[in-house]
Amino acid sequence: MSSCITRLFEGSRNRAAANHGSLRTGIQLHCQALIHGFETHLFVGTTLISMYGECGSVYFAKKVFDQMREPNVVAWNAVITACFRCGDVKGARKMFDMMPFKNSTSSNVMLAGYAKAGEMELARKVFWEMKVKDDVSWSTMIVGLAHNGFFDEAFAYFRELRMIGLRPNEVSLTGVLSGCAQVGASEFGKILHGFIEKSGFNWITTVNNALVDMYARCGNVGMARLVFRSMLHKSVVSWTSMIEGLAMHGYAEEAIQVFHEMEGCGIRPDWITFVSLLYACSHAGLIEQGCNYFSRMKDVYDIDPTVEHYGCMVDLYGRAGYLQKAYDFVCQMPITPNAIIWRTLLGACGIHGNVELAEQVKPRLFDLEPYDSSDNVLLSNIYAVAGKWKDVATVRRSMTDQKIKKTPGWSMIEVDRTLYRFVAGEKTNKTTAEAYEKLKEIIKRLRLEGGYVPEVASVLHDVDEEEKEDSVSKHSEKLAVAFGISRLCKGRVIRIVKNLRICRDCHTVMKLISKVYGLKLVVRDRSRFHSFDDGACSCKDYW
Question: Where are the domains of the chain?
Fold first, then answer.
């Protein structure tokens, strides 16, 4: 095989991405292989399978595989991976069962695929059927369990791994820490940190980066700072993780200070660093600084703005109330605004109650993503707050006609290394019953001692006040906090992870709870952290 074709296919695999443009490029490369008669060559065939898998085309991946004369175990693994990448879990299993020869690598591919697909029961079955389990097998299971929220089980596997004499590797540790960060499992993260310190992994930069990210995303920015400052070697990822962590928690000035410190150390920021920096400015209302960094990114570091940077700028103007400026900025962008850009602007309209601009944004957004439930709900709430109930009814009716269902709000809290998930309006069980009972007690006390009055402006107008108050009182973050107060020891910080943006009423309740009960609460919602202490929030009511 010519070295030219070899280099061509190595490059194509590394650059492939799941979008139409790269698939078209991939097909062109496939044609080149056909012309030169290389399609049936093991290396080229396997590379094509992987490429099609990364491009999201399992059909072409299987077609190439079927034309291979004698596929080896690497080719079989490649087609199984392609099936998983494209969401064809049953197809992956079918190919695995058809394999004439299997090795531990093949089983590990199945383990990883099932774990990423959230099919942990199937992953467990494959794991326990394996005759030989290497450190990759154990690490894959631990990471998979952690990412899917089975932290007690992940910890049990972690203990057993050590008991049989195997040692977790750098990849498994960063993977599990990433899982902890994803769902806010700080207690399990702390246990891992202890192991890392005792086992000598604390000198590895990637592991420390994962620790910084985990602590920041679990709401413990103090520990994130401590790990970051103790690092002997800091990469651009280290600095960016710290800037991002501070930005998420509302410490914009400190994030900017760390950025300047990074520059002073001679570390060149990348495009992700600037996303984090602009995010910090937008969530603190630092318009002048944000505009300055947006300009410096290109002028000083020759980094072309991406849609993420433009989104931060729209958010910067929108949150500060400069809605027309935000709209003009979008219209003048040199790249086509995507749904996220228009959604950011619609969110700003919601914050500031600008119905007219919201109606200008609506068709642009709905043309791109007409079936997104959150956009419809946000528009409905904008109309409700403005008292435009006919428009509310129109949006709701449209959602019903198009069978668009509202995304259920959920919140999670970790208690004794177990994650509890609360969903608004879910069927009552023992756990939720305990939360509801405690919440009633809390709301009563907040009314008496904190002067709490529910904010019900966006609740449907055709129900009475008592029903409106009952509706907002059942939001998932209130239930999670109530459960935390019921179960956690006094003096512990209550940490909540929520999938949606916290509403104004819940934000008020959290502030009052921190004051009346003398507690510290940390809520991570869809876009940032809110740290409540003594009746105030770290966002300074700017979110």
Answer: 411-537
